Amino acid sequence: IFVSGGPMLAGRVNGKKTSLSSMFEAVGSYSAGKMTEDEVEEYANRVCPTCGSCSGMYTANSMNCLTEAIGMGLPGNGTIPAVYSERIRLAKQAGMQIMELLANDIKPRDILTKEAFINALTVDMALGCSTNTMLHLPAIAHEAGFELDISAANEISDRTPNLCHLAPAGHTYMEDLNEAGGVYAVMNELSKKGLLHTELITVTGRTVGENIKNCVNLDPNVIRPIEDPFSENGGIAVLRGNLAPDTGVVKRSAVAPEMLRHEGPARVFDSEEDAVKAIRGGKIVPGDVVVIRYEGPKGGPGMREMLNPTSAIIGMGLGSSVALITDGRFSGASRGACIGHVSPEAAVGGNIALVEEGDIIQIDINANTLNFAVSEEEIAVRRAKWRPRKPKITTGYLARYA
User: Per residue of the chain (402 residues), what is the pLDDT tens digit?
Assistant: First the structure.
């Protein structure tokens, strides 16, 4: 039974709830001259007021919520704040319940079925989880003995409405989701349209359907009723095209509507640091598409998260006019037209390595496409000239990736 530490409470700055992503964006605002040093200091002191994982629907909380959806966590594991005594009771209940599972010979592989992962992806879409779930869920499935193709995410997204706009997509937080009924209340909404496999066994010793049948949505402003969703499709989209022949992943629910379709010139950077310097230096302008490459699993090495550049874009006031594409990944706190996990990555000769400054990048998130306006003939010419780079790191654990 998975028991997490729980999310922190939301911070409060100037009387409004806030979270860690606001801190990173404040740094961008300071660089743009929109915020004073004292104001940035106020954010630094107040955005993370307690222990716990971040207060929005970022990666840790996303996965903790999905442990409930997949059947491996007790109710509340994803949402009960870290500082609540209820979290301690949850841990005690887990210790007691594990003995019940032992007595009834219910094992993890009995729970972690393909259908359970479909449930997890469905809840993922409804909650608007972090794009990193597209890394973690396939990894867990692999350990469970089968392969989970993230292409299924689009099919599931097409039929699953997005019911929550938790930070960074909106202005509600994990404590609000907890008070609204938690993950089970979201699942109950989804079950009204038959979107879940409710017959599956879980660590409660009961089925999904039995777990959620009496869970009421207590706040329709936090969890939209399924008849009135934020959008008719889910929070994550998997993109493909000549810039991402295998995959690219975006948190659609955190993208400004005007950026769901965008064309603009590529501004190419071969490291996160160079991109951040250019963004904060005012060298990126509305319409641009920032391309950060050689930051994937092999190129990074280790696939660093691009929270600094995405937050800098938001902080500079460019969130509704500039896109970012990378073979790295993102923090769950990233928002905007940020497309990550582009593969094949640059380090192995993926097409992202062949993008040149000024190439027109074509993004259509609703159509699940990501292309650059370069002919196949020109791509072939560029590929013939491309040479792999020497690994940045050649010793230690990171060398295993490089």
Answer: 999 999 999 999 999 999 988 998 898 899 889 999 999 999 999 999 999 999 999 999 999 999 999 999 999 999 999 999 999 999 999 999 999 999 999 999 999 999 999 999 999 999 999 999 999 999 999 999 999 998 899 999 999 999 999 999 999 999 999 999 999 999 999 999 999 999 999 999 999 999 999 999 999 999 999 999 999 999 999 999 999 999 999 999 999 999 999 999 999 999 999 999 999 999 999 999 999 999 999 999 999 999 899 999 999 999 999 999 999 999 888 889 999 999 999 999 999 999 999 999 999 999 999 999 999 999 999 999 999 999 989 999 889 888
Instruction: Name which of 82, 58, 72, 80 is nearest 133 in CA terms.
Output: 58
Tokens 């493909």 sit at which residue?
Answer: 240
Domain assignment of residue 225, yes or no: no
To the question of pTM greater than 0.85 for the whole model, the response is yes
Question: Which helix (H) or strand (E) element contains residue 238?
Answer: strand 236-241
List the catalytic residues: 331
Instruction: Mark whether 33 and 176 lie in a shared domain.
Output: yes
Q: What is the dihedral of CA 346, 349, 353, 359, to 10 degrees?
A: -140
Q: Is residue 50 part of a domain?
A: yes
Phi and psi of 98, rounded to 5°?
A: -65, -30
Domain count, the chain: 2
For residue 327, what are the domain limits?
237-385
Strands 338-343 vs 323-326: parallel, antiparallel or unpaired: parallel
